[in-house]
Amino acid sequence: DTGVSQDPRHKITKRGQNVTFRCDPISEHNRLYWYRQTLGQGPEFLTYFQNEAQLEKSRLLSDRFSAERPKGSFSTLEIQRTEQGDSAMYLCASSSSGTQETQYFGPGTRLLVL
Amino acid sequence: DQQVKQNSPSLSVQEGRISILNCDYTNSMFDYFLWYKKYPAEGPTFLISISSIKDKNEDGRFTVFLNKSAKHLSLHIVPSQPGDSAVYFCAARGSGGSNYKLTFGKGTLLTVNP
Fold first, then answer.
1. Are A58 and A45 in contact (CB under 8 A)?
2. pLDDT, averaged across chain A
3. Residue B98 binned pLDDT confidence (cut-offs 50, 70, 90)
4. Which residues neighbour A2 within 8 Å (Cβ) at sequence distance 6 or greater?
5. What is chain B's mean pLDDT, rounded?
6. How far apart are the C-alpha atoms of A105 and A93, rounded to whole Å?
7. What is the distance in angstroms between the Cα of B21 and the nearest Cα belonging to chain A?
8. Partner B contacted by A2 (CB < 8 A)
9. Nearest CB to B44: which of A99, A105, A110?
10. What is the pLDDT of residues B12-66, one digit of tens each?
11. How far apart are CA A60 and CA B39, in angstroms?
């Protein structure tokens, strides 16, 4: 068990560019979550997958954001036409099914939009 | 409206002493609570959790107490060690249809002095 991995760990981009992040969950986990953390705040929920189905999107996730989990394994989060306000740490977590299953987080991708 | 509140941004304790981190919540639908520890440039690491049907859960040096009537929980670390220095996040999960996403507090920075 290698844990949740995310790639890249850091991304610097110019305003208006598109960026894509990847998350590989723990292999036996069927649930995958994306969170965003800004300075001085706790992580905030963005979206959630059970297998390949995206079951909820937060209102924080504007139309410029899209997430996929095509085969129920890894997931990608794409931000189109990035804005400076998108600068944050993007965290991925995974868990098994169940009401009290723990979410295990990856190391995050830190995005800086110039 | 912040549903999970950690009112102390920081806490400093001496090595060997007890660290007590507090968390309050407002949503009575929360029924599962977790504590995560976060080092800079890393993702949150799960520490300990508690279900709303319990009032205490212990794991080694870490104990979480839950007071449902006061909507308050606390994390006790005894004895505190310098390696415990990190940001600690309290998180809560709801029952029913929202039993997957976590709502986090803003975190408390714990510094354990040698």
1. yes
2. 93
3. low
4. A26
5. 94
6. 4
7. 15
8. no
9. A105
10. 999 999 999 999 999 988 989 999 999 988 899 999 999 999 999 999 999 999 9
11. 25
Nearest CA in chain B to A43: B104
Question: How far are the Cα atoms of A17, A50, B29, B102, B114 from residue A75, in angstroms, in the given order?
Answer: 20, 11, 29, 19, 42
- Taking only the tens place, the pLDDT of each residue in A29-74 is 999 999 999 999 999 999 999 999 999 888 888 899 999 999 889 9
Residue labelled with tokens 């709303």: B52
Would you tell me which residues 55-74 of chain A have a C-beta closer than 8 angstroms to some C-beta of chain B?
Answer: 55-56, 58
A11 to chain B, any CB pair closer than 8 A? The answer is no
Asked if A48's CB is within 8 angstroms of B41's CB, the reply is no
Comparing A101 with A81, the larger pLDDT belongs to A81
State both tokens at A7.
């790639």
Of B107, B71, B78, B109, nearest to B91 by C-alpha is: B107
> Running DSSP on this structure, what letter comes out for residue B82?
G
Tokens encoding B69: 């009537």
What residues of A are in contact with residue B4 (Cβ under 8 Å)? Answer: 42
How many Cβ atoms from other residues are within 10 Å of residue A1's Cβ?
6
B81's tokens: 């060690």
Q: Which residues of B touch A41 (CB under 8 A)?
A: 106
